[in-house]
Each structure stands twice: as C-alpha cells, then as structure tokens.
C-alpha cells in the first residue's frame, strides 16, 4: 500500500487556541517537527505552517493549516495541488470526541463524523474520503450542545498529559505510518492507553 507524503495536523491558529482540545492534531505535527528537527515556516501560498522532512527515507511534507478549523481544506488542497499528492497519500491528524483521552486510532478513509476540519478537507478534495486519519482521543462532554465549547477549551491537566503521552506513543510508529504499514501500527496503537 502507498504511504503518506503529506501529514496534516488540524487546529485553530492563535495563542487563545493553543493547547485546546481541538488542536491535538496541530500538537502532533509540532511534536513530530521537534523530533525530526524540522522548522515549520509560515507559508502564505499553503495557508499554513509548512515544512519538509525525511521520514523512513521518504520525503514528507508537514502542514498545520493556519486558517480556522472549518477552512482546513484550503491549505490541504493547496499543498496537494502544488506537489501533485493524491488524497490517498494524505494523513490528517485530528482530535476525536468518540474516543477517550489517552487513546488514538488510525484508519484509512471514512466520513467526517461531524468534524468541521474533516468536512472541509473532504469537500476541497472533491469529496474524496480516502485519506488517512490519525484520531487523537479527547473524550466527549456528554451532550451534543456542549461540544463546540468543549473542543475550544484547554483540557484538564490530567487529560492534557494523557494527550501528550498518546502523541509520543503514536510518534514511535511514524516510520511505519509514513510507509503505509498501517496494520501492525493499528495492532499496537489501538491497545495503548495512557
């Protein structure tokens, strides 16, 4: 199976959103950039923070859209067009309400599950849903009406620490993820609990 050439971490720009639950994906890319000593630069034509890195011998692109979450697709579309990257070679890292903090799930394809960032990416990739997703659990506030508020708040220190541990754990598998060896990663990662 083909691997991933573009790794996209979703979040909202600006200090007020830093370390909020909705920014778990952006946090993941920041951690990967630190780990691989890659400098993310603000890139206007991609509407995001952008960097190039070599992972497992493959050249990969790292992207954190600096549009707001619900416009994430604009940045993804721009990079895909510029570098001729098909949706199948894109991995989107995002926060996931349906799984608890301290867990992560990896999958290929699927719907948007109400996530505004995914919704926009699917729309901008001409409704192609075949990109990969690494879902970082943030838990659910219990009621749909509380979701908007919940995702834009900083997690409790305990939950935040769990998210950081989950990010560290999933980064251990980044070589396999980039190469597209998803099954062994899923077996390991899906049983991990911070």
How would you characterize this protein structure?
Helix 2 runs parallel beside helix 3. This protein has a seven-stranded mixed beta sheet with strand order 2-3-4-1-5-7-6, with helices on both faces. The protein is globular and about 40 Å long. The protein is about 35% helix and about 20% strand. The mean pLDDT is about 95. With about 190 residues, it is of the alpha/beta class. The chain contains seven helices and seven strands.
Give the strand line-up of the largest sheet: 2-3-4-1-5-7-6
Q: In total, how many beta strands?
A: 7
In one word, what is the shape? globular
- Alpha-carbon distance between the two ends: 29 Å
Percent range for β-strand residues: 15-25%
* Helix-and-strand structural type: alpha/beta
Helicity range of the residues? 25-40%
Poorly predicted ranges: none
Family: Belongs to the PTH family.
Enzyme class: hydrolase
Active site: 22 (proton acceptor)
EC number: 3.1.1.29
